[in-house]
Amino acid sequence: MYLLQQDTNGDLTLSEFFGKKIPPYAILLHTWIATHEEVIFKEIVKGRGKAKSGYRKLHFTTKQAVKDGLRYFWVDTCCIDEASSTELQEAINSMFRWYQRSKRCYAYLSDVSSDTKSSNISEPGPTFQPSWRESFSNSR
């Protein structure tokens, strides 16, 4: 499993972990944008992709993971090397387990605007929908 982390220069880097050596991590659930705007595995490896609009969700996840005391996080668009069919198949087969074992799961919905005063699920505001409470009641 590849996980992202922010290095001391503020750049994102990938580290590979196996089995019981996988550290605590956050995971991102997100809406996909145009394929050419998503940051992918090889761009992270080469230190590229910051100018793409998809980088915003990585920045969001980095900030939130740090805030939650987590060093590592996983985002499907750039933590799976899709150039390797074997790795892609392994990731597809492992994805449920990866979501299940994450310490935090963040949602980034690029196609939804939010009112920052009422968008925090832990502090429901007047526009908080009961369906959200029900949906997240069993999450960590």
Automatic annotation (TrEMBL):
Question: What residues does the Heterokaryon incompatibility domain cover?
Answer: 25-129
Quote the InterPro entries the UniProt record gives. Answer: HET
Recorded superkingdom: Eukaryota
| Location of the region described as Disordered in the Swiss-Prot/TrEMBL record | 114-140
Protein name (record): Heterokaryon incompatibility domain-containing protein
Which species is the source of this protein?
Didymella exigua CBS 183.55
